[in-house]
């Protein structure tokens, strides 16, 4: 198949997250020939971006497609703008460098149990990855829930205006009942 789909998890998450596993199971059942990558993104922005770039480099002849959740949505946007891709963004972080200012210090990833220290230099790495939407060949579909307790959905609504959006009242940051969108997500991603 001509596509590569890369699922990007959020901050303090992993490829074992609920949405990542739902996506993997859906692809196994409905698109067994599709190349799906669900990388374990490092805890630091520059490290996470390098991991994504390494995956992209492995597939020079495939069309890039992304599913990004929260901070993964921010990273997916950065890559889409750089490489002219298509992405579905689930409650994406728009200005994570502001949000994570309040998270400086030591953290433990609940999935990997890895301890890491978030410092000011990592905020600067995030700012360096912030990308305006200027690539006319990039396409986005946003899935937003208004009761997201972590991010203000209106930031994404504003940044991605003009792109396809599904804004649901209520919900939460995890995007409740995500799996019901999987058939439409892949129909969107796997068309030109």
UniProtKB/TrEMBL annotation:
<dbReference type="Pfam" id="PF05728">
    <property type="entry name" value="UPF0227"/>
</dbReference>
<dbReference type="InterPro" id="IPR029058">
    <property type="entry name" value="AB_hydrolase_fold"/>
</dbReference>
<dbReference type="GO" id="GO:0016787">
    <property type="term" value="F:hydrolase activity"/>
</dbReference>
<keyword id="KW-0378">Hydrolase</keyword>
<dbReference type="InterPro" id="IPR008886">
    <property type="entry name" value="UPF0227/Esterase_YqiA"/>
</dbReference>
<protein>
    <submittedName>
        <fullName>YqiA/YcfP family alpha/beta fold hydrolase</fullName>
    </submittedName>
</protein>
């Amino acid at each position: 198949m001509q596509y590569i789909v890369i699922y990007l998890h959020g901050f303090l998450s992993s490829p074992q997250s609920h949405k990542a596993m739902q996506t993997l199971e859906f692809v196994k059942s409905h698109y067994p020939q599709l190349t799906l990558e669900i990388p374990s993104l490092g805890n630091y922005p520059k490290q996470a971006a390098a991991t994504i770039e390494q995956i992209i480099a492995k597939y020079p002849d495939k069309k890039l497609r992304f599913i990004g959740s929260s901070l993964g949505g921010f990273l997916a946007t950065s890559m889409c703008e750089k490489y002219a891709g298509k992405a579905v963004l689930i409650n994406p972080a728009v200005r994570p460098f502001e949000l994570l200012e309040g998270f400086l210090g030591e953290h433990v990833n609940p999935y990997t149990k890895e301890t890491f220290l978030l410092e000011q230099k990592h905020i600067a790495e995030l700012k360096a990855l912030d990308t305006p939407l200027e690539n006319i060949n990039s396409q986005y579909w946003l899935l937003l829930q208004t009761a997201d307790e972590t991010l203000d959905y209106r930031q994404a609504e504003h940044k991605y205006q003009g792109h396809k959006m599904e804004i649901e009242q209520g919900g939460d940051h995890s995007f409740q009942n995500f799996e019901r969108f999987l058939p439409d997500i892949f129909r969107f991603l796997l068309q030109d």
